[in-house]
Design goal:
The complex is a heterodimer of chains A (918) and B (109).
Chain A (H helix, E strand, L loop, with lengths): L4 H8 L6 H24 L4 H13 L3 H8 L17 H17 L2 H30 L10 E5 L9 E2 L6 E2 H10 L3 E13 L4 E2 L2 E7 L3 H5 L5 E2 L15 E5 H8 L9 E4 L2 E9 L14 E4 L2 H5 L10 E10 L5 H18 L7 H8 L4 E4 L6 H38 L1 H9 L4 H38 L14 H28 L2 H7 L7 H38 L9 E7 L10 H14 L3 E7 L10 E6 L7 E8 L3 H5 L3 E4 L13 E5 H7 L9 E5 L7 E10 L14 E5 L9 E8 L3 H15 L4 E6 H8 L1 H35 L1 H9 L4 H31 L14 H27 L3 H6 L2
Parallel strand pairs in A: 2-12, 5-24, 6-11, 8-10, 17-22, 19-21
Antiparallel strand pairs in A: 1-12, 1-13, 3-12, 4-6, 4-12, 7-10, 8-11, 9-10, 14-23, 14-24, 15-23, 16-17, 16-20, 18-21, 19-22, 20-21
Helix pairs in contact in A: 1-2, 2-3, 5-15, 6-13, 6-15, 6-16, 7-11, 13-16, 13-18, 13-24, 14-17, 15-16, 18-24, 18-26, 18-27, 19-22, 24-27, 26-27
Chain B lengths: L2 H15 L5 E2 H11 L8 H13 L3 E7 L5 E7 L1 H29 L1
Antiparallel strand pairs in B: 1-3, 2-3
The chains are: A alpha+beta (918), B alpha+beta (109).
């Protein structure tokens, strides 16, 4: 038979057909010509004649011409990109598109992988961003590494009144430093405080920033609008008080509108001219806080009842500066040490006794770098945040293990496909490139979702951590460093576990893979071991996380339920600020009594009392005390002034003696009520009632106060719930000699706050309209005080549950795979008479071994890891066996459920089907 | 036979030939030749373009089939679409022929 292929192909060359299609057409037409040739020779035509006749058919009319209309030049092919050796870049684009398409065909797998990645990456990035903002980032000012903070090193013994968030210096010290120092070419002082912008009635608070005239210049901030405060604004007496608004405040309160010349803003009842607006980037030098209104230091003289500028015992300022040219930090410190002596001598408060004076005169000034600003968040939250970062890193590992597991499983399933494609002539390199592209598509999708999640998570964290008292403003732009790092980890996982099995598969004989459907291929055993190891790791890590979360949750519960010495539900704390009411001192007692009477008269109020310090409120007042007539060394005790009925309102029980009453007034004997710990510490084994306690008073004229103890109450917490009970001395409000500008009123009521608010405000402002009122339910105070613990508890629980879910998904996958692998064996067993139960036991035993090993490792890791969080726990040991046991049990139960499904499926296997699949 | 006539009717021919069972190209061409008594003859250049066009339109479907002890051949069978088209064309053709006959006979008579 003549060969027609070449003739046909020649004629078709012009059409430039797809090679596959061309081959097909050539073959078909060649056969036709064969048949024609056979027919002709069968009829007796000579071979030569027949051949020419057949070939004629190709040319009349010209084959190419007629076929051109019916054959498309290039057919769209469903096959993977062909081996045509085109440029690298276009090849990669095709690979990615193809990869994306393949993944779309497997939506469950893709979804789980992307989700796992997103969660791991997102969580890590969010927490690291927070950590960075709190700890690591520099201030958004010019040359932050040239900023320094001049302060007295922590640990020095200072006493007096501390206000503001960074009470490092007194006004007197600031004035002297300013005039004496030579090391800093620019030096400024600042303080932060809450300021009331309302004229009366319920308070409208804003974040105030007191600044010296040189502040904005020193820090290096240019105004967005108008001007910033300058030295002329901080003049003694504050003749023309001006204020500068932050951009955020300006947008929020003034709607970002044009500010008219001479327009003013009311601060604590005084009018300040609005001088300008600072750009949004500048929040002050206190990281995590943002100021609303900046006013000069001299404003303190205008606003405050007893201005801190005049008091040598009031610490409220912090100093920042830039070194003069030629000065180094060491030189500056030497200089500061040299001038310290003179400064502290000349600013020594007159009322100090010998001991305190000695402490004061030994103080020294010091400069330290301030590139990352002031941050109380750093101290408070650094440790929990690092811990959280550790937790989220574990979650990322678990997620990666999950992904690895899934990819190995998928690669096994696709062994057949890979083998077939290899058999059909695909190049290994090309194949691997395509699989790589698939993995990268997954990694990219995961990273993108992770980035989005990170943003949301960050915002949630900031909202969670902001409290009424300390709103938190942290700018957290997406941290590309960490995102890049975690994305790289994710990509590595995808690539490693997506590629390795595939490379392995491509090395096996295609026919083997096709025959056994990918189950019995060499290397599958090793793969299973890897998957098993991964699941064990997942279970172990999950246990660590669950134990951690359980520890934190129990800690929190311990704190919430502990006996604080008073009931903290259904109690409301009201802050009444009557500075502007200008009550003359002699009328103050009557005024406060009237206030209390009005509040008690409000319907729904069960009990009410006033106090100077609210428990757990964060305020402090302590002095040295001793009992008259004893040899016991003097000790420090906490103080509070309360009205009669306070203990009843707070439901703190009396052990001995009586409450304050009308007998205790101005002029009568000074009395006090003390707590159990006070008695135990200063008068062990004796009843303190009737004894006299001596107080080294600071607040008064520096003399020693003598108070007769008239009552003994149960211990109560003072500053925070975590602390141990400390000795507390309660003094009666009626005998208060100090001028105060506000009072706290605690109200017990069964009605919700919303109902009471209006009537309480009315009652209080009824006494004087210039009183500003702030409400804080005690529940909130407690909650805010436990912010750190709540943060740890909720986030660790979230991550713990997440980890457990991921681990269970991994377990389910591996057990399913194990079942599939042993299908034949199971089929044989059933055929030979094994019951369903037997099969269940078989599978569960295998799964159980994995879980047991994982739990064992997990317990060890958990005990070790829990030590890290020791300082954050309360009322529990890190290796609390009950907690570990509960977590392990819980995880085991969930693992049993996860393995139950594949086990059930195995037990229900039809032996005939199972055996047929050879 | 007139070229125009042939062109219009060839689709119908091919479709009806693969209605009952699948046939390969040469078989289709041979059947047309024998059943028309030689009046219609298809060669490579006229048959295959037609087959490919019909295939591209989804009226017939071509598949390589390997029968024991034979080379593999490309068999064409009628698709669902093709069946519909066949019915349509058959009825159209029948109507046309009917109309032609009535007119010509009328003239004749």
């Amino acid at each position: 038979m003549p060969d027609w292929s070449r003739e046909i192909r020649d004629r078709l060359a012009a059409l430039k057909l797809d090679p596959g299609r061309e081959a097909s057409v050539v073959e078909e037409i060649a056969q036709h010509l064969d048949d024609r040739y056979e027919e002709l020779t069968a009829r007796g035509v000579s071979p030569e004649e027949a051949r020419r006749s057949a070939l004629d058919e190709l040319d009349r009319p010209a084959l190419a011409a007629v076929l051109a209309g019916s054959l498309p030049r290039r057919e769209p092919t469903r096959l993977p990109p062909s081996e045509d050796g085109t440029g690298w870049l276009s090849g990669i684009g095709k690979d990615f598109r193809y990869g994306a398409r393949r993944l779309r065909l497997d939506p469950l797998f893709s979804l789980v992988v992307v989700l796992s990645l997103a969660l791991g990456i997102g969580a890590n990035t969010a927490i690291f961003q927070l950590l960075d903002a709190v700890r690591l980032r520099s201030l958004p000012v010019a040359h932050p590494n040239q900023l320094y903070n001049v302060r007295i090193p922590p640990g020095s013994s200072r006493s007096g009144n501390f206000s503001g968030r960074w009470p490092q210096l007194t006004s007197a010290q600031w004035d002297r430093i300013r005039s004496e120092q030579k090391a800093f070419s620019k030096l400024a002082a600042w303080s932060s405080d809450r300021i009331n912008l309302a004229a009366g009635g319920e308070a409208h608070f804003a974040e105030g920033l007191y600044v010296s005239g040189t502040f904005f210049d020193t820090v290096g901030v240019a105004p967005l609008r108008g001007r910033v405060l300058g030295p002329g604004d901080d003049a003694p007496g504050c003749p023309s008080p001006a204020a500068v608004l932050s951009e955020r405040f300006w947008e929020r309160e003034l709607g970002g509108r044009e500010i008219a010349t001479g327009e003013t803003i009311t601060v604590e009842g005084k009018r300040f001219e609005i001088a300008g607006v600072t750009p949004a980037r500048f929040f002050g030098v206190d990281v995590g806080r943002a100021f609303d209104v900046a006013i000069p230091l001299c404003a303190e003289d205008l606003i405050a009842d007893s201005p801190r500028t005049q008091k040598r015992r009031n610490w409220w300022l912090a100093a920042v500066g830039r070194l003069a040219p030629g000065w180094t930090l060491e030189k500056a410190n030497a200089h500061l040490a040299a001038i310290s002596g003179g400064i502290f001598e000349s600013t020594l408060p007159e009322t100090y006794d010998a001991t305190r004076a000695k402490d004061y005169l030994s103080l020294r000034l010091q400069a330290r770098p301030l590139a990352s600003g002031f941050s109380d968040l750093r101290e408070q939250y650094a440790s929990p945040l690092w811990l959280l970062l550790g937790i989220s890193a574990l979650v990322l590992l678990i997620a990666c293990a999950n992904i690895a597991n899934l990819m190995i499983a998928r690669a096994s399933a696709r062994q057949r496909e890979i083998a077939v494609r290899l058999a059909l002539g695909a190049s290994r390199r090309r194949l691997i490139r395509q699989l790589l592209a698939e993995s990268l598509v997954l990694a990219a999708a995961g990273a993108a979702c992770g980035a989005l999640l990170a943003r949301t998570l960050s915002r949630l964290l900031v909202t969670f951590l902001s409290t009424q008292d300390s709103p938190w403003f942290v700018e957290m732009p997406l941290d590309l460093r960490l995102l890049g790092f975690t994305a790289a980890v994710a990509a590595l996982t995808c690539v490693l576990f997506g590629l390795l099995p595939a490379v392995q598969a491509s090395r096996t004989e295609p026919i083997e893979a096709i025959k056994t459907g990918g189950r019995g291929v060499a290397g599958a055993g090793a793969k299973l071991s890897v998957r098993r190891a991964l699941v064990v790791c997942q279970v172990a890590f999950s246990l660590v996380l669950l134990v951690g979360s359980l520890l934190f949750v129990r800690s929190l519960r311990n704190l919430l339920t502990l006996d604080a010495g008073f009931r903290h539900d259904r109690i409301l704390s009201i802050r009444a600020d009557y500075t502007r009411a200008r009550v003359p001192p002699e009328q103050r007692t009557a005024f406060l009594r009237k206030l209390l009477e009005r509040v008690r008269a409000v319907p729904g109020v069960t009990a009410a009392a006033s106090a100077v310090i609210v428990p757990l409120g964060g305020d402090f007042w302590n002095d040295f005390v001793r009992i008259e007539g004893t040899e016991v060394q003097r000790k420090e005790a906490n103080f509070n002034r309360v009205s009669p009925g306070y203990f009843g309102t707070m439901e703190t029980a009396f052990i001995a003696g009586r409450d304050f009453d009308d007998r205790d007034a101005q002029g009568s004997e000074l009395v006090a009520i003390v707590t159990e710990t006070f008695a135990r510490t200063l008068l062990p084994g004796q009843n303190p009632v009737g004894r006299v306690v001596q107080v080294d008073e600071e607040a008064g004229s520096g003399r020693v106060g003598r108070y007769r103890i008239v009552g003994l109450v149960r211990d109560t917490k003072y500053g925070e719930l975590r602390e141990d009970f400390a000795p507390i001395v309660f003094l009666p409000m009626a005998q208060d000699e100090q001028s105060r500008h506000g009072i706290a009123i605690v109200v017990r009521s069964d009605l919700p706050l919303a109902t009471l608010r209006a009537s309480l405000t009315a009652a209080i402002t009824g006494v004087s309209p210039d009183i500003s009122v702030t409400f804080r339910p005690f529940r909130n105070i407690v909650r805010d005080g436990l912010l750190r613990e709540r943060l740890m508890a909720s986030l660790s629980t979230f991550f713990g549950l997440l980890a457990a879910i991921l681990a269970m998904v991994g377990l389910y996958g591996v057990v399913s795979f194990m079942v599939v692998r042993r299908r034949n064996e199971i089929g044989v067993r059933i055929a030979l008479g094994a019951s369903r139960r037997d099969i269940l036991v078989l599978v569960l035993r295998e799964a159980g071994t994995l879980v047991a090993v994982g739990l064992a490792i997990g317990v060890v890791l958990a005990i070790v890891a829990a030590q890290l969080g020791r300082s954050l726990l309360f009322g529990l040991q890190p290796s609390d066996p009950a907690t570990i046991g509960a977590a392990a049990l819980g995880l085991a139960a969930v693992a049993a459920a996860a393995s139950a499904f594949p086990a059930q499926r195995a037990a229900r296997l039809d032996p005939v089907t199972a055996l047929r699949e050879e | 036979m007139d070229r125009q006539l042939k062109k219009g009717s060839t689709e119908l021919l091919v479709l009806s030939l693969v209605e009952r069972r699948a046939r390969h190209g040469y078989e289709i061409g041979k059947l047309i030749e024998t059943r028309s008594g030689g009046a219609l003859r298809f060669n490579v250049a006229s048959l295959y373009p037609l087959l490919y066009r019909l295939e591209a339109r989804g009226l017939i479907e071509g598949r390589w089939v390997e029968k024991p002890s034979q080379r593999r051949r490309r068999y064409y069978r009628l698709t669902v679409e093709g069946r519909k088209m066949l019915r349509l064309q058959q009825s159209t053709w029948a109507a046309f022929v009917d109309a032609m006959r009535r007119i010509t006979e009328a003239e004749h008579a």
